[in-house]
Amino acid sequence: MTGGHDDASGGWLKTPQSCIIVAGIAGDRFxxxxxxxxxxxxxxxGMFVCRLDRPWVExxxxxxxFLIDNVEQIDQLRRFCxxxxxxxHKSTADVDQHLRSLGTSHAHARLGGGVGSVSYANxxxxxxxxxxxxxxxxxxxxxxxxxxxxxxEHRRLSPEAVTDAVEPIVESVxxxxxxxxxxxxxxxxxxYNYSHAINCCALAASFGRHLGLPKELIVELSTGGMLMDIGxxxxxxxxxxxxxxxxxxxxxxxxxxxxxxITLIEQAGIGxxxxxxxxxxxxxxxxxxxxxxxxxxxxxxxxxxxxxIIDTYDAMSSTRSHQPAKARHEVLQTLYRERDRxxxxxxxxxxxxxxxxxxxxxxVELSTGxVAIIMAQNPARRLFPRVTVLTKSDKSIDPAFRQLDLLLxxxxxxxxxxxxxxxxxxxxAYGLDAAELYL
Length: 439
Prior knowledge:
This protein is of the alpha+beta class and 439 residues long. It is built from 15 helices and 11 strands. The chain has helices at residues 71-80, 95-101, 126-152, 159-175, 179-185, 192-210, 215-227, 248-255, 257-268, 273-281, 302-316, 328-337, 345-355, 406-409, 434-437; strands spanning 10-14, 19-26, 29-39, 48-52, 66-67, 83-87, 363-366, 371-376, 386-389, 403-405, 421-425.
């Protein structure tokens, strides 16, 4: 029997794994409550939390049972619980459909609370990991140039170069969720083609870590992030790297990069059918509007859905020939607006939880008027990350570059003295370039 108790008003009717149906008397009515045991990482808006994995009095929740209507509630639950119980009938979301739609042939992912989920925690502080993250980044930059140059020179991709680029990034992200992204924010960018491959590799590692995938699957997913756009290097120069809108023939040529990439990967003998599948579907969209095959919904494999979100996020938050970079916070809002249209809603929510409301490396303006850069997330409270302050309130550079933990600042008794994030800023706001400041 899974948890629970017997009392005068009712008892357990059946208790299959992770599903509990409770019968009881409420007034003059016989009621049945159907519960689902769900890990906190798999929660979504519209779920009604009826029980925790600990007594309510050990948490700050005022109501013993509530409907989730924002990501902040999920972040708070994560601080206190590893799993909770959902009342299926009181939930406005279809709980079973949510778990099925997030499912994967690999049952380990936390998305379905499957067997074998891996729980990752930061093993080192950001400051400790930065030297290793720098080594991984510099190594990946060198190898990414080699990989792209090999394609442009009609040489076969080197499986060894791909592995040597991907694995140190994965190792760094597993040790510390923030260090690599903090370092990237302080670094001069390579050309978009190189930096996009490296960023997507790291983002894939972070997303896989967040979902509790085993390390070997994180490596495969990150390899997909590194190689998903490799076919673009085989296109004629100038096909996509100009600021004008593409005409029909150019659009067709650009979209051919998916098939070209698959051919390059197959010729090199790199990866599995899973890797080829995720690369071939990262431009498919939830509503069927993507390419090359117009797949929709669950027709798109899970890892292809994940890479589609990652690809779009990094593209929109990067400076390209035809558009300036947008604030990471703004990009996440854009992805959220496209949930269940271009991208699966539950995955967008998980991706937002993975990166935080204000992703590491973002510029923000504080309530004091000072400008800061996000240095690391506070997993317990995503609205209160650690930051490094770049300017004084008049926006002049503050050479002290002091660090603040906004979670601790939020606990200051006097609300008037609490420091919080007032708004997100686009890259380069107030003429600031963190890489130029060399923090």
